[in-house]
Amino acid sequence: MLTLEWESEGLQTVGIVVIICASLKLLHLLGLIDFSEDSVEDELEMATVRHRPEALELLEAQSKFTKKELQILYRGFKNECPSGVVNEDTFKEIYSQFFPQGDSTTYAHFLFNAFDTDHNGAVSFEDFIKGLSILLRGTVQEKLNWAFNLYDINKDGYITKEEMLDIMKAIYDMMGKCTYPVLKEDAPRQHVETFFQKMDKNKDGVVTIDEFIESCQKDENIMRSMQLFENVI
Questions:
Q1: Where are the transmembrane segments (predicted)?
Q2: What stretch of H or E contains 82?
């Protein structure tokens, strides 16, 4: 049974950890496989899939992965996604396997939108690598910017209570049945209020990127969570 300290003040800490932890399911499915360096390079050059990835050298420059790591990840990505892209239904299927005792549908939707940076309804290998590079190898500032973008559902540059509540409910639905003690039904709303008391410095009802980053950087739990998965591959 998965155990999390849901009743602590910092549910937003759990949210940030869940972002990274859930992303590791993709890494587990797409990265932990054998590969032949030469054959992977050949496939990258001669790929006949619908979406052709950028050259490894370019992705290496744009991410914090080595060429060999990119080769491993590409082989797994192509094996699971022969078309060269991942759609939202695939995301939902992956996270339903990772959280079988909960309903991860809504959270997978939000996470998919965060990876789908050009909002074309598909996550390419490039999208996947750029997002994963931030989550696993990025600076604290980069990770917090990525997390803010996830919480800012309508992408207007602010996090509202309604947006944060939607994210908290999605996390509750995904993880709630696996927690001990079991969360009360109004727990997500209570934690949203705590979140805003802590982060909404000027009390205008919204949290800006600056308020979000400043508050997170002062939270020791969040700072520790930023370092949990830095060397997983």
A1: none
A2: none
